[in-house]
Write a structure and sequence with these properties.
The chain is about 40% helix and about 20% strand. It is α+β, with helices and mostly antiparallel strands. The longest helix is centred in the last third of the chain and has 32 residues.
Length: about 425
């Protein structure tokens, strides 16, 4: 009996070692210089065509290699092709920079994630009607913490994205936060996760108040410069001066159309500008593949710790501007604003990462990031489906077209009736 048990244990151990050895071998043998380039090219061009996205700038990394890919146009009007140094707005991937700014202030002892938000913004209050821990509540809620905003557990509704005003003045960030005064929360703060982009604008405003600098200047001086991100911008005008900023687009009447709104009050959540070159370094920084000061290494590690005090959303917990897989398989974040989209996925155990930047609001970046990884890791490519924005534009365009046709028909019949 003992012999059988010993043999069984030996088999289990050997199987375990074989599986792990296979995974390590597979990870080490992903040669970015020998990927299925034709298959990737075909996939990217097909998805850009289907989604009507003008262009994409892509960077793939492993521990020792970097591969840049570029497709389509940065500016179709000027016939400017996409390139690795093309600058694009990175959308909600901006949140990781803001999250790092908050953790830096915490590390410096200037704030605590447990601090009530009213400590910094006394005029900001919220309302809640419902139950919490068995108690009925109907009134003002003042005990939201900095951590509630960092981990997306504030209860602020997703629709609050529609409150954000356009503008580029120095008061834009405060104006954005003031749109939240008296907002009815969807749930009691801290009870669960719910993504609301404006949470990170509140954090940006806290950075501004605590540091005494503009949000942009603080991030530039304390995150961008120390980490050597030389191609990342927080002011659009500075990016424009380089001549490398891509033209953003949105779907309008069946086609991608140039679109360039200005929302400085939403910069902490969605309007940082960068390129594939800096995203390569950003991923290496996140995965510990380049040397950085100890303090930054410490807070970056903390930025990857998801909030496990609430139920996960699918396979992920939300961290400081990152979605962190509950099994540690990957760290990622999608980026989207009205005219740009992006996606970044890192697999730390395999030292593998991909970032895709595109110049239109679509689901192309997310789909391509996941499926390019599928190709290079010998997995099946998933089926592509059009995103909500394209479907809404199609529906709206059809309705508008029919309305115009019916309007013209009515006008013609009216003329006939008058003449007759």
């Amino acid at each position: 009996m003992k012999k059988i048990i010993s043999i069984s244990l030996a088999i289990i151990i050997l199987m375990f070692l074989f599986v792990n050895a296979s995974q390590i071998f597979a990870a080490e043998n992903i040669d970015l210089k020998n990927i299925k380039q034709n298959e990737i090219d075909s996939l990217v061009n097909d998805i850009l065509r289907k989604s009507k996205t003008p262009g994409a700038s892509i960077v793939l990394i492993n521990e020792n290699q970097t591969e840049y890919l570029a497709y389509g146009y940065a500016n179709k009007t000027k016939n400017t092709e996409m390139a690795k140094n093309t600058l694009l707005e990175i959308g909600s991937m901006s949140k990781a920079f803001t999250g790092l700014g908050i953790l830096l202030l915490e590390d410096q002892g200037k704030i605590s994630l447990n601090d009530p938000i009213e400590k910094y913004i006394p005029w900001l209050y919220f309302n809640y009607k419902g139950t919490h821990k068995g108690k009925s509540i109907n009134g003002t809620v003042n005990d939201l913490t900095v951590g509630n905003f960092l981990y997306q557990t504030s209860g602020i509704p997703f629709k609050s994205i529609g409150y954000i005003p356009e503008g580029v003045s120095d008061s834009s960030l405060e104006e954005t936060i003031r749109t939240l005064v008296g907002t009815d929360l969807d749930f009691y703060p801290g009870d669960r996760y719910q993504y609301a982009t404006i949470n990170y604008d509140v954090l940006g405003y806290i950075i501004q108040l605590v540091s005494g600098q503009t949000y942009e200047d603080f991030i530039i001086e304390n995150i961008i410069v120390p980490l050597g991100l030389d191609n990342t911008y927080l002011f659009q005008d500075k990016a424009i001066e380089t001549g490398l900023l891509a033209q953003g687009h949105k779907m309008s009447f069946f086609q991608s159309q140039p679109y360039a709104p200005r929302y400085r009050g939403n910069t902490p959540a969605g309007y940082i500008i960068s390129n594939a070159i800096d995203m390569e370094r950003w991923m290496r920084i996140q995965m510990g593949l380049v040397e950085i000061p100890d303090q930054y290494e410490r807070i970056i590690k903390k930025s990857h710790i998801g909030d496990t005090t609430v139920i996960s959303h699918g396979s992920y917990y939300y961290a400081a501007g990152w979605d962190v897989n509950i099994r540690g398989e990957d760290i990622q974040h999608i980026g989207s604003n009205p005219n740009f989209s992006s996606m970044l996925i890192m697999q730390p155990e395999e030292n593998l990462g991909i970032c895709i930047l595109t110049n239109m609001n679509s689901n192309a970046a997310e789909y391509l990031a996941k499926n390019i990884l599928n190709i290079i890791q010998e997995k099946n490519v998933t089926r592509y489906t059009s995103d909500t924005y394209k479907s809404l534009d199609f529906t709206f365009s059809i309705i508008l077209s029919l309305s115009l046709v019916l309007g013209c028909l009515f006008f013609v019949l009216l003329i006939i009736a008058v003449i007759g």
